[in-house]
Amino acid sequence: MKLISNTLQNLHSTLYNIRETDIDGISITLYTLCATFAIIWYAWMYTQSKKGKPPPQPPSPPGLPLVGNLPFLDPQLHTYFAELARRYGPIVKLRLGNKIGIVVTSADTAREVLKHHDINFANRDVPAVTQAMSYGPYDIVWSPYGPRWRMLRKVCVLKMLSNTTLDSAYRLRRREVRETVGYMYGLIGTPINVGEQIFLTILNVITDMLWGSTVQGEERANLGAEFRQVISEITELLVKPNISDFYPALARFDLQGVTNKMKRLSWKIEMILDKVIDQRLKMDGENRNKQECKDFLQFLLRLKEEGDSTPPLNMTHIKALLMLKNPLVAIPTPRLSDPALYEFIVAGIFLAVHANIINYLIAGVMMTGRAIYLHVKSSNDPGDEKPKTFMAIITSLVAITAVIWLLLNLKRSKNTAAPLPPGPRGLPIIGYLPFLGTHLHKAFTELAGIYGPIYKLWLGNKLCVVVSSPSLIRELVRDQDTIFANRDPPIAALVYTHGGKDIAWCPYGPQWKKMRKLFVSKMMSNASLDACYTLRRQEVKNIIRDVYNRSSKPIDIGELSVSASINVVQNMLWGCTLEGEMGTNLGVELRVLFAELMVLLGALNISDIFPVLARFDIQGIAKRTKEISLHFEKIIDCAIERCRNMVMIRGGVLGNNDGKKDFLLILLELIEEHEDSATSLTMAQLKAIIKDIILGGTDTTTTMVEWTMAELMQHPEVMKNVQEELTEVVGIASLVEEFHLPKLRYLDAVVKEALRLHPALPLLVPRCPSQSTTVGGYTIPKGARIMLNVWAIHRDPQLWDNPLEFRPERFLNNSENFDYLGNNFQYMPFGSGRRICAGIPLAERMLMFLLASLLHSFEWKLPYNTQLDLSDKFGIVIKKLKPLVVIPTPRLSNSELY
Ligand code: HEM
């Protein structure tokens, strides 16, 4: 210890006793040391960089995390690559998911890669799906470079494609080509699909060469047809963009099920090949060596038996070679320098991004034989021995095609399928999603200004078509109503309704027709709605009393109308059954669940945009919706049980003592009275209808009450007219009753005008065509999501005078032209056609009754110094962005009325 303290003391005194001249000396020494160190460091770095530093990677355009450059690839791949080369030089690096791609665009670099480093680059980058093909690793195209590949290639090029072998199969080719020409001759004057004919001819020529003398007659035709079918399915799979190729770590999950499907198809091929090989073996067993080889199969089996290839040719090799001879070889094949590096020479890998890229690539191969490869073969490459006869066939076929194409051009131009609608180009994979913003209805309206009243866009991998003109909507929902009567339900809606068992999401068909008919005729009829009027009236009275108790205080109209709508709907549903505290408690529970459900249904769900990911439910939306759905059902079960007990107590009499009937009673009657008849309902359907009423009836009504009130606060003169009408029709000493409603013509015009400017469902509920069809001269493919932009039509200046002004008068003198039945395609707040809103009679009554009661019973004013904001926020139902807060004061002459 002592030693340490002495040392510290010495050091301290040394430092504090340094003189100025000493400091100068120390500084000079330090500077010299630093300079020397810097020089040595620089010299060392320099020699290192000269010595062994790896050269930099090729330049690369900027990409995004995770997806890399994938989203920026242009479908016109060849021009895109040329553009990249202009900007970054002849060798460019791209990141595709977590793969690296290298694009080579100059002859010099291509020579370097394919000639000087040929061995390094002689491997392929095998797409995940080919691993599932039984012969994937055994065929020439995908085999790793090595003895097996050399043996297979030798057999193929020197033996199978030799002039002698091809000459011996000439008869078979001639037969097929003549058949095609004869077939086309018979079709003179009729349009034909030339591409398809050529494909079929080539496939027939090839299968003929494969086993044409082994299988004959009808059996050959059947086998050919089966083979063709499997081959086209395999071709489709091979060109399908596969997530596993871009993210090899995900390959084991086979997210799109491509690998599984390929295994199934591979198995089918195996069966076909086994059958033909068995037959050949039997035939050869009978007269071995008596005849010369007439098809490839016979030739290969003979070669196997001779066993003089190294490594020896086995049955799997034979099958792989037979498969090689089908048009699948037209699939482009990227090369790989070293599998461990995940690098490849690109031309073909990008094919997985877009189907049209793939078509382009395939077309390239078919036309030129090897246009895709950046592969400039050296002159001693055995592959350059062009099979002359084969090339002659291809050339003849191309020539025939060209002549036929020229002859038919005029006719075809009249008959060609209509194009897809125009539309903005989006990014690969995510489509136009990133450019839409949050106000979909407004973005769609702006796009209509650019692309016209019908256009398409991709949202994720969903093709959407947006229609925004009355005449096109007429074409859709009137002229082609049955085709467009299907829905395109979001996953959450499917979960909530057990796969679309309700009216709103049920596919168009007998089930939907039956439920809708029962719903409209039994529940929405005037008689049924009259029968539950007291239930509505009782609930509206409660609301008026509640507001009265909060007189002169600010009230959030949105909140008020949510609880008002839910209470009214709930009372109509089971008001006779669940009276008193039980009804109130369930009402509160329902409101909480309902609020969450609306959020879930309105959320942007990745599963809807990328259906392949649906099974993972990444955001947990499906799971939570299911929980809520079950909770809803528990409430419904509880109501049903109570109802049944009540009926038992009353000795089997359905209905209340005073003849009131809630919806639950009507529905149970339908189950019990009509068992097994065409009008019977199942319990699942009963629950689904109740869910529809809660979902369809509450949010829409709530939103419209708030919008109408907001417009009235903005336009005091309109408010004054409404209240004067109410005073005249109802009287200042009475409460509004439903029988007053038909006389309130001005209020009716106000509600219509609010629904024009703020349609609750601005894009209606998306439709989905059950088959491909043509609308407005454009093809609408089956399964596309069709959005009808009613919001844009309701604000179109060509259809409405001063469309952005709130002017109820436009409906006052013209009311016969504007009802809610969807016959006037200029005004459709409840939709149109077969799938028009099923609850219009109730919606109309509820909306008018609630508004008339609130406006008649109270004066409303904005809190001091508040500005009204009429901006909206997009969702399934379009709401006010900022809540409307207003202050009520009693208006009726008699306070006892409250
Ligand atoms: C102001 C209130 C309401 C508005 C603005 C409204 C609007 C709509 C719209 C635009 C549609 C889609 C129509 C189409 O695709 O062409 C629809 C469908 C539907 N609405 Fe309403 N609705 C309202 C109230 C109600 C009420 C109160 C109920 C039930 C009691 C209801 C039940 C339904 C049902 C079941 C469907 C689906 C019909 C089907 O697919 O066949 N709606 N509604």
TrEMBL record:
Gene3D superfamilies, per the entry: Cytochrome P450
Query: What keywords tag this UniProt record?
Result: Membrane, Transmembrane, Transmembrane helix
Transmembrane domains' residue ranges: 25-44, 344-369, 389-408
**The name this protein goes by in its record:** Cytochrome P450
What InterPro entries does this protein map onto? Cyt_P450 (IPR001128), Cyt_P450_CS (IPR017972), Cyt_P450_E_grp-I (IPR002401), Cyt_P450_sf (IPR036396)
Q: Does the keyword Membrane apply?
A: yes
A Pfam family matched by this chain, by name? Answer: p450
Do the record's keywords include Translocase? no
